């Protein structure tokens, strides 16, 4: 029988200190899944570094997702932000959608403008894209499988000490994990996926992210962990050698893992990431991230990187 106290120790809970199930930031709906979520891989690695893609569509790619056996990429190109969809096995382009050509929020949001489209998450036929502007953060929702795409609505995210943006979505519980727009975040928040309202829950990260980078995206994993990609944001930043994806327990904010993402040049910027158990280049891989290479006088390039772990069932 699995001991609750023994499992709590794995996520850094002090021995002898009482804990209430209700005190967790966002726990699975049953005890068995909660106990399992306290287990996690001991080792992650970059299984596929990706080859450089220098295409007409790779400008300002911010987010990536995999669904319907297709890759979805969000571009924040200033002239025409788009959602690009590619067949998974062949890599052939299926469709390109202008995501700026949608109705404005209704009811209107004071100060709203189309400005920055970022991370993407997909649940069935529903596609969720992070957006922010001077008016705050929003989630743009579409319905479709990539070959089709229909606007559904905007979800305005209630501000918490300023603007917040989508990091990851727990679709089973209809909750959005959000974060502020500053470097080196030390906390994340919980919002309703249905209304965008702040759920009055804050999770302190232990340890905080301290790599002098910005949150660029993330995902909620099958074993109920929170993954956060953290990337530098300036064209003239110095090369760090690595940028990172961090894995946290959404029970108490304990960091469970740090996944290095190789970045050879200062102009390379880690963007969004996603979970998808797929075979790439003959390898079974489980989560993926976009590394954007900013180009000053040409269109940007990207690398699609894929990762694995020693215990993938615990990701």
Task: Explain the overall architecture.
The longest helix has 7 residues, at 4-10. It is built from 2 helices and 20 strands. It has 315 residues and is mainly beta. The chain has one domain (4-70, 160-314). It has a 4-stranded antiparallel beta sheet, with no helix packed on it. A 4-stranded antiparallel beta sheet has the order 2-3-4-5, with no helix packed on it. Helix content is 4%, strand content 48%.
Helix percentage range: under 10%
What kind of assembly state do the chains in view correspond to? single chain
Number of helices: 2
Tally of separate domains: 1
Instruction: Report on the biggest sheet.
Output: 4 strands, antiparallel
Mean pLDDT: 95
Elements, N to C (H/E): HHEEEEEEEEEEEEEEEEEEEE
Derived structural class? mainly beta
Which blocks of ≥5 consecutive residues have pLDDT under 50?
Answer: none
User: Strand percentage, roughly?
Assistant: over 45%
Please give the number of β-strands. Answer: 20
Shape: globular
The end-to-end span amounts to 22 Å
- Kindly provide the radius of gyration, computed on alpha-carbon positions and rounded to a whole number of angstroms: 19 Å
Order of strands across the main sheet: 1-20-19-18
């Amino acid at each position: 029988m699995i001991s609750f106290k023994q499992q709590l120790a794995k996520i850094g809970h002090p021995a002898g200190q009482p804990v209430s199930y209700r005190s967790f930031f966002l726990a699975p709906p049953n005890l068995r899944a909660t106990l399992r979520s306290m287990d996690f891989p001991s080792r992650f690695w970059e299984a596929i570094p990706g080859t450089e893609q220098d295409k007409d569509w790779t400008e300002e790619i911010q987010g990536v997702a995999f669904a319907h056996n297709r890759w979805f990429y969000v571009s924040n190109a200033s002239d025409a932000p788009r959602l690009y969809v590619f067949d998974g096995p062949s890599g052939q382009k299926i469709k390109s959608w202008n995501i700026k050509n949608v109705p404005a929020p209704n009811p209107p949001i004071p100060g709203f403008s189309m400005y920055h489209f970022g991370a993407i998450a997909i649940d069935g036929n529903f596609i969720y894209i992070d957006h922010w502007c001077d008016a705050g953060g929003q989630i743009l929702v579409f319905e479709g499988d990539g070959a089709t795409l229909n606007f559904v609505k905007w979800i305005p995210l209630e501000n918490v000490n300023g603007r917040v943006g989508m990091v990851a979505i727990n679709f089973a519980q209809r909750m959005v994990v959000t974060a502020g727009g500053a470097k080196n975040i030390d906390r994340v928040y919980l919002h309703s996926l249905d209304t965008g309202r702040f759920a009055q829950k804050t999770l302190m990260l232990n340890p905080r992210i301290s790599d002098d980078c910005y949150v660029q995206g993330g995902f909620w994993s099958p074993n109920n962990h929170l993954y956060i990609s953290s990337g530098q944001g300036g064209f003239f930043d110095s090369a760090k050698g690595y940028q990172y994806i961090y894995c946290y327990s959404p029970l108490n904010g304990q960091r469970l893992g740090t996944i290095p993402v190789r970045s050879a040049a200062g102009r390379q910027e880690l963007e969004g990431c996603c979970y998808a158990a797929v075979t790439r280049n003959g390898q079974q891989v489980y989560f993926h991230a976009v590394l954007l290479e900013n180009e000053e006088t040409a269109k940007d390039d990207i690398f699609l990187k894929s990762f694995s772990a020693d215990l993938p069932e615990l990701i």
